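Kindly inspect what follows.
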Amino acid sequence: MQTDQNTNVGQKGRFYLTKHIWVPQEPIENFNLKMSDMILRRMPKLPLGGDDALKAFPVLGELRKSHDKIKADLKYLLSHQDEIPALHEVHPRDLFVAGRAWRTFLMKIWGHEVKENTAAVPDTFAAISRIPGVHTALFSILQGGAEIEPHRGSAAGVIRFHYPLIVPKEPEKCWIEIGGHHFFWQEGVPLVFDDTREHWVKNQTEETRVILIIDFNANMPFPVNLYTTLRYNLIRHSSEVKAVQERASVGVPPRNPPTVVSDGLISGARHTTTVPASARANERS
């Protein structure tokens, strides 16, 4: 895995449960991957694409129902693309892709809403909120020519959903390989898989690919659910995730900014004033 020599980007180190209590990240992840091999045997048959994915997980149809609204949110978001960080700028010890070729806009991280971001994409977050058990939700923006090297996620007992929104004109040249299964993204055609299976992503075009990624609870049987629930709650309440949540908040203004209604001093006429983003930021500080 490529790393940034100056900032230790992509390197494994200490995972802070609290400000002063930490565990070594790599051995814990290796143990979790061993557990995930056992968990995989209890998972639904994955990966699944298209209608098969929706038949297995019909609740994900909420996104398809809201497709046009989500695309409108995304169009607005991409008009502020310079504000969207690379993954390693938000989570320095996660996967590294050189430069800002892989940008991520987090709306939810380990169960925590990133409120400054969800205000920019309200219809998208409304659709996500209708799906039970969502852990993490984000827009993944991969530039042309970028590659995410083969890797395994460590979130055992969690199912990952890809909902493609912008794909290259030659979609077969922008693909993902999951445990030996080869897929390419097509707009509105979902893909469901287990993130702990090794997967590899490559965009062999000059165009940008954008997908909505959602991680949600796999509802594992007893006693496996004891392990997955304990792990989820330890990570959810850790200092590490709180730091990621703070770094994920970016300066994209709300898509539908609130208005202030006031009466004229003399005429009593009512008028509305849009509250600028800078003023709202000052109020929070």
